[in-house]
Amino acid sequence: MRKLLQKLFSGFVVKMANKYASRPNSVRIHQALTALFKSINQQPGKKGLRLDFNQNDRFIIFSDQHKGARNYADDFGFCEHNYLAALTYYNQNNYHLISLGDSEELWKNTLEAVKKHNKKNFELEKYFVQRNAFTKIFGNHDLYWDNDPLAGFQLESIYGQKVKIYEGLILQTIVNNKPLQLFLTHGHQGDMQSDGNWFSKWFVSNVWAPFQAYLRINPNTPAFNNQLKSTHNKLMYQWAATQDAVLITGHTHQPVFNSLTHLERLYIKLNEAIKQNDEVAQNKIHDQMFKEKISGAEIPTFTALRANYFNSGCCCFNDGDITGLEIADGKIRLIKWEYKTKNQPVRILLEETELSGLLPNN
After folding, report:
1. Which of 70, 178, 320, 332 is least enclosed by beta carbons within 10 angstroms?
2. Are 306 and 362 in contact (CB under 8 A)?
3. Residue 101 and residue 138 in contact, taking contact as beta carbons nearer than 8 Å
4. Which helix (H) or strand (E) holds 324?
């Protein structure tokens, strides 16, 4: 019976999850991001840190693990092997770990259940804490860390020492003798389904989680899919386009690099190939789109794009892959960890660009 229901409802469930999982409001989003960015710059340490870094510093940004209780409503379970391999790699290479929100799934689960079933990854995260190389940002699904009076005690019980929770972070550096700020936050602010909405939390806990567990459906499609930017990503990009800073978020589970999704990059390449009358390049791109099951929709027009919005994607894709953003060696990189030969997790570089290209005058 379950297999029949999976076949009948899987597509519908994923479609509805994508459609109704968020209700972003442009005014609310822009006001919330502006207020938080201003607060961190004016009062660093209150709502968020402001950290200086240089060419020798390294950061890895992961978001949206949604660590659960290893039942069929746990979207993180299939991805833990890649996450553990990634944490080992980044700790050995002296990266600073930034957990950009929704690390723990506390709408569907109790905290005790999450702690019990995620001891391995908490132990690896603890190494970053011990090196003073761990920054934890809260999201909507782990808002508990910000608003529960026992949150500090619980974090200390997990990591063995006090860990402060923040709403955002500003990384700042000097590139080509010019200042550059990277503004990081989870990105749920202004989403009326996520930003303090008690009904959404109740629905996920009492309706969606049992339904998902029974059907064994994970709505988080692979990192590269046939979508343009989600509405929420578009609105966050619109805010970033008016700022001198670079905006980095999570929340949407959709990787964005230099303000573009994978599909949008393909469309731009296709436009260039058409302009140059390069049939070989056109055929190659069409073949790639066919393999990735991307429909031949009308090519959208991209104008005046500013390369200052990034999204880390998530660590709960239903194929077990995870995505994140690295900042190292004067560059920012979109990476993916996936199983390759001999079932060994492998780090794959998807995109990279120089930090100098993110300066406001560019």
Report:
1. 178
2. no
3. yes
4. strand 322-328
